[in-house]
Specification:
Helix content is about 30%, strand content about 30%. The protein has helices spanning about 50-75, 85-90, 120-130, 160-170, 185-190, 195-200, 200-210, 265-285, 305-315, 345-350; strands at about 1-5, 35-45, 95-105, 110-115, 140-150, 150-155, 180, 215-225, 235-245, 245-255, 295-300, 320-330, 335-340, 355-360, 365-370, 385.
Length: about 400
């Protein structure tokens, strides 16, 4: 159940501005709201009464949710600059919240909470403090965890794989890059196995990515040495990102088990490092550049009303776009003026996450097409079209 917050209780209910697609309109997009939603915040508080415990739990959950939101949007090097927000002020950053799995006793309150933060208020806080942040959400990335131990060769699906178990237990949707671990059913087994993943088999990688609505695959290979049950484990991890079946960047890590660290915690620490590297690289690539604003005229080829409505819908939720105005519309083409932050390369990458393709036509005009439809043929020209490819965020070397 959702609860709208009102001034004087736990938060103010403040609306967000919708993206204007017809004529000159407002800045931020409707679809950005999901980025500002933090789900499954577990709380367990005890107080003199159940009502007091609930009140405390909501305040604690709100703080935890805000921390997770900041971790999602703000690069690590910018986080020390974030102003302190006390409990009274923090309530005004929350639009509403919901409660699931609620349990109470005479003095205890347990629940899973979901908070929806107000995008404009959060942007105002960060922008006012001069903090760089990102909002663009990536398409899902499929993670294939391969494990190799002292007594067993590389395994992905069938044999015991503690590396995959740890990844499967992680929250994969907390960052801007959703990380999806395949469930390992018969179709997954048919799509790819450990030898194909290790060899970078392009067809197999595309097959497993397509099963989960992704384009990128992260093959992370953990090789264990030592005895983790005795606290002497050493883990070598090599993680390679494949973009549409082609090998991209590689990250290599070596982790030594610390004194008293349980085996599962050791593996979890390794997985968290990889996840964090993916998220940080993505945020750095998609930082909103508030000091760099420009406007371009974009031509959108159309085959009918459905094309136009689809493009409009996909443009919603692109954080870099501040304003979109319709300059002209016919049955075969729309002309849009797009005002955005950053440069055309960054805009192109952001649009690619919404299955939109931005390229220069031979006549040097910008053209926006749907990536899931065949591109209409361009007029003959002595020069070729110059595309801005949807580059992916690399992993640190």
């Amino acid at each position: 159940m959702w609860f709208r917050r009102t001034s004087g209780t736990l938060a103010a209910a403040l609306g967000i501005t919708a993206l204007a697609l017809l004529g000159c309109g407002a800045a931020w997009a409707q679809g950005a709201g999901d980025v500002f939603t933090v789900r499954s915040v577990a709380v367990d508080e005890t107080a003199a009464t159940a009502a007091d415990a609930r009140q405390t739990a909501l305040a604690v959950g709100q703080r935890r949710a805000f921390r997770r939101l900041i971790d999602r949007l703000v690069p690590e090097d910018q986080q020390p600059l974030i102003p302190e927000v006390d409990a009274t002020a923090l309530q005004f950053y929350v639009r509403d919240f919901s409660v699931e799995n609620e349990r109470t006793s005479a003095v205890r309150y347990l629940a899973d909470l979901t908070f929806r933060f107000d995008p404009e208020q959060v942007r105002s806080l960060l922008g006012g403090a001069g903090i760089a942040f990102a909002e663009t959400r990536s398409k899902p990335v499929v993670v294939l965890p391969i494990f190799s131990g002292p007594d067993a060769g590389p395994t992905l699906w069938l044999e015991t794989n503690p590396w995959r178990d740890v990844w499967a237990q992680r929250r994969g949707d907390d960052g801007l890059v959703p990380l999806t671990v395949p469930i390992g059913d018969l179709e997954d087994l048919a799509a790819i196995d450990a030898p194909k993943a290790l060899a970078g088999d392009a067809e197999a990688l595309r097959a497993i990515a397509a099963r989960y609505g992704a384009e990128d695959v992260l093959v992370t290979v953990a090789t264990l040495n030592g005895d983790p049950e005795a606290g002497s484990g050493v883990l070598q991890v090599e993680t390679r990102r494949y973009v549409d079946g082609s090998a991209g960047s590689t990250q290599r890590d070596r982790l030594v088990q610390v004194s008293g660290e349980p085996y599962e915690g050791f593996l979890e620490r390794a997985a968290a490092r990889i996840d964090n590297a993916v998220q940080e690289a993505w945020k750095q690539q998609y930082l909103l550049q508030f000091g760099n604003q420009r406007t371009i005229l974009v031509f959108v080829p159309l085959e009918g009303l459905d094309d136009w409505l689809t493009v409009r819908r996909r443009l919603e939720g692109v954080p870099a776009i501040q304003q979109t105005g319709l300059a002209a519309l016919s049955r075969k083409e729309a002309q849009l003026e797009i005002t955005f932050l950053g440069d055309e390369q960054r805009l192109s990458r952001a649009l690619s996450q919404r299955d939109l393709f931005l390229a220069l036509r031979p006549d040097s005009n910008w053209e926006l097409t749907r990536r899931d439809k065949p591109r209409p043929p361009l007029q003959p020209s002595s020069g070729g079209a110059t595309a801005l490819p949807p580059a992916q965020a690399p992993l640190p070397q």
